Amino acid sequence: QVQLQESGGGSVQAGGSLRLSCAASGYTWSPYCLAWFRQAPGKKREAVAAIYTGGGSTYYGDSVKGRFTASRDKGENTLHLQMNSLKPEDTAMYYCAAGPGPIATMKGYNYWGQGTQVTVSS
Predict the structure, then answer these.
(1) CB 49 within 8 A of CB 59
(2) How many Cα atoms occupy the beta-carbon half-sphere of 81 within 13 Å?
(3) pLDDT digits over 56-105, tens only?
């Protein structure tokens, strides 16, 4: 059974940084996509960043390019998201997801974590 456990959320002031982690277990096939999505109140869930384990290619949403960096610790099968220069509009519940892809769409992911809250104050 695939399990995804997020950690690292919290509250920070604008301009600050946070690092999210997602521990993935139980995935028995490869390659696959690991991703971070986020959903703010009243808004659709959107892809933030993703990694394709087959070739290491990455995806970043336009609103986070240059500020967020996704990385994968292969040994521990952990996905990280380093978030710098955080803005109030980054406030959302952040979800880790795994699936066969496509890399940047929700339909490409069939396993989801419970989410971790990120709150950025101005």
Answers:
(1) yes
(2) 33
(3) 799 999 999 999 999 998 777 899 999 999 999 999 999 999 999 898 89
